[in-house]
Task: structure prediction
Amino acid sequence: MYQIEVMDLVKIYPARRRLFEQWKQDRKLDVATHAVDGLSFSISAGERVGFLGPNGAGKSTTIKMMAGILQPTSGRVTILGQSPHQHRIEVCKKLGVVFGQRSQLYWDLKLEESFELLRRMYGIHAADYQRRLNRLNDVLDFSRFLKHPVRNLSLGQRIRADLAAAMLHNPPILLLDEPTIGLDLDSKKKIRNYIKEINLQEGTTVLLTTHDLDDVEWLCDRLIIINHGKMVADNSIHVLTEQIAPERYLVVEFDTEYELSVALEEKVHKQEGLTCWFKMKAREDSISALVSELAARFVIRDLSIKEPDIEDVVLALYNRKA
Amino acid sequence: MDSNLLGTTLYLMKLSIKKQFAYPLMFISCLFLIPMMVASGVLLLYALATHFSSVSGWTFDQLALLYGFGYLSHGLLMVFGAQNIWMDQLVIKGEFDRMLLRPLPVIIQYACSNINLIGFIDVIIGAGILTASSWRLKLSWNAGLVLLLLLTLAGATWIRLALYLIVCSTAFWTKRSSSLFWLMTDLMERATQLPLSIYPQRFQLVLTVLLPLAMISYQPVKQLLNQPGTWLAGLVFLATPVIGLIILYLAVKFFNFGLKQYESAGS
Result:
């Protein structure tokens, strides 16, 4: 059974016409916005899914509908068998939600007060709470600013605090909307590691949006890519890479001028001085055969393999028509 | 209400009060301004009563009793309902996201988001005016009457809270409601600080039945001045909390309906 099911989900923001504007000639602004336009997917327990798309693709709107913040225009969302709109309170106990752009903490309260409030809201036992807080602190390292009001935290501190707040009640599902936005390398790494760890150890399902493809590479097994509110691709990274960028390259730097045989010439992707890129079908062609053939004929100064780039894959998919 | 919900609600209120101590100067300036505002209101009544010998049959002390009782529920509104002033800002900036993500009814989180200590200044002043005028009028009190009046006070506060909640919840559609808050405040002042008998009959009827503002202070205080004991007077007192509960229930329904139109914000 799926943990998350999204069926024919649609969100239309109605056109907002200003008073007296109906006399204006320009009617272009009257068109309603189809932010999410018939999206369907399902996610099983323990998956780590990257939910990608260019700006304005409808990612946040979808996540907000999954979290019960926004009411869908049509279609439905089911989280562990329940609708977040009809059973909001039950569903939000099972979700941990982070919006990197906007804190869900309480601006004027000290961080520890925010945490205590959440403990009470979710009905977490004091002993469990302390244990979990300690564990979260090991990774997210927030004990130094527990006594500070949230409005005084730096961006990195705030996002770490937001992540901790989303995980205090140990939810089986995490919805993370750009959780690493604006973070420095070290913080990013910590957060990625933690998300992966909690997924591996507790089987937490993770859906995350990001524009940082390192996040995707580190964290996701599966990609759901949308654009203009419609599905573009939904598959494992592996399969998508095979489909979109199935080649990898053997990059060879020769020691001296070289002349390739016709058979080898066919495999060349590009040449630059003494360096030559050989295009290999990712699975079929044998790299070692090619290397030994080249080594037998030429003196090779350097060798490397360039794997298919996730960036190429994602870029190709963003440009693909939905 | 289960104990977890109640405990969490009380904790929310506590934090919301604590939050205000971050801005102490606001409180101190209100400590000076509010008594001056009230004093000018009471002096205006005095001027009216002495100038015209009475205001539609009401003496200064009776007017002050009405004013004091009305001001009490105004104070309680300011304690529990001040967040309505900024309802449209909460809608525009997407602040309801936070409440919708948490496993506690949104209306409770909203209601406790701004327990406003300044309102207690109003409550104390209202109680003072009520006590002084009732002493001057030599009203006789007993435990039953005090209890009845407290219930009426609760009802009057519920009516105020409900009307503000309804008016400000329109922000879910219009994205603008703060001017409606102040309009409502003007209307309430006019309908609760002066005897409604100065207005034409039809307008009185509107204020009793359609918008039950007459039940906030005018009707109960009229019964109080008649020195009640009759069943009818008791019924009028009880009408206020009953109407208050009904209209508050409807207001919460309307708020929840509005919440379904909520569009969050950005990103």
